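Dig into this one:

. . .
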Amino acid sequence: HKLLVYELYELYENQINVFSEFLEDLPDTDEPVWVLGECYNVKTEKTKLLSDVHSRLWFTYRKKFSPIGGTGPSSDTGWGCMLRCGQMILAQALVCSQLGRAWRWRAEGGQPEEYHRILHCFLDKKDSCYSVHQMAQMGVGEGKSVGEWYGPNTVAQVLKKLALFDDWNSLAVYVSMDNTVVIEDITTMCPHSQSQSRSDWRPLLLVIPLRLGINHINPVYIQALKECFKIPQSCGVLGGKPNLAYYFIGFVGEELIYLDPHTTQSAVESEAGSGVDDQSYHCLRSPRRMKITNLDPSVALGFFCKSEDDFDSWCNLVQQIQIKRNLRMFELVENHPPHWPPFVPPTKPEVQTTGAEFIESSDKLFESEEEFEILNV
C-alpha cells in the first residue's frame, strides 16, 4: 500500500515538472538577477547566468537506494524534500570551500577530484557523510521519525551534527537561536586566532532559522530577504510553501529563483575513490521562480564564510544593511547574552539509531507533511 502511494506521488510530481517546462523561462527584463551574491543582466549575460545556476548541485528525491536503517524506506519521495534542500545548501558551502564560488560545472566532464569527493559525501547510501540515510537517522535525535517531514530548523540542526563527522571538510555549522547571531560564539567555535596568524579559522556555514510572519511572509521583510542574496557570502535560503521545500538561490524583481527537489530519480551507484555519474546532479532546465509573497514564513538563511576576514566582512555588510537601510530580520550581537545558557561548541553525538523508527503507515506519512514548524518557540 505504501509503495503504491509513493509511486502515485512520484508520477504526479514528474507530470507537474514536465508541464512546468512550458511555463518557466527567464523574464525579458532590465532588472538585475541576483544569484548567491552574483549579479547578472539577463539580456547580456544570460549564458553566464545559466552556467552559474546549472553549476549548483541539485539533489532531488531518489528511489531504489538501500533501505534506511536496513528496514526503512528505499525512497524519499513525498517526505524528503527538505532533507534534499539541506543537502543543497551544505553542498554549496562545500563547493565554495573546496572549489571557490567562481567554479563552474562542465557537462562534458573533466571536473577536479574535489568535486567528485563532494558528490560522494551525498550519495544515497549509509556510509556517505551527508546521505539521506545519515540525515534521516540523525533526525531521530531531533524528534523526527525516519520518513517524517522536516522543517528548515530541524534540517539545520541535523547538518550541524553530521558536519562533526566530516574530517575532510572540517566545516563548522553554526545555527542561530532566538533570531540572534552571536559573534563571540562563532569565533569560539571556528576558532578565532588571537595571534598574528588568522589561518586557524574553520570554514563556516552560518544558518539562521527565522519566522518572517504568521501564515504568510510579512511584507516588511521582503526587501531584507532580497538583500541576503546580494551578500557575497550568500549560500541560499531554505524554505518554500506549506509541504513543499525549495532551495532558494536568488531573485529577480519580485520573484525568488529556486532549485526544486520534487523530481524522483534513481539512486546513483559509485565506488569510493571513483568519479560519479553526475548528469542527474545538475538541473539544466530554466531556473524556477515563485512570487516572494507566496513564501511560507518559516525559512533558514544560509551564509558561507571561508575565512575570518570573510566573516568580518559579512558582519560589516549585515550591520550596514541593518543600520543604513533600516532592514532587519535578525539580531547580530558581539557578546553572548548573559541570560542565555553558556555556549558549548558541538561535539560528536552518540549515534545509536537502528532505523526502525521509520513511519510504517503512509497515512501517518502524509499527515506529517504539515506547514513548517514555528521556530524558536
User: Anything to note?
Assistant: The CA atoms of residues 40 and 48 lie 8 Å apart. Confidence is low (pLDDT under 50) at residues 1-6, 15-23, 192-196, 352-377.
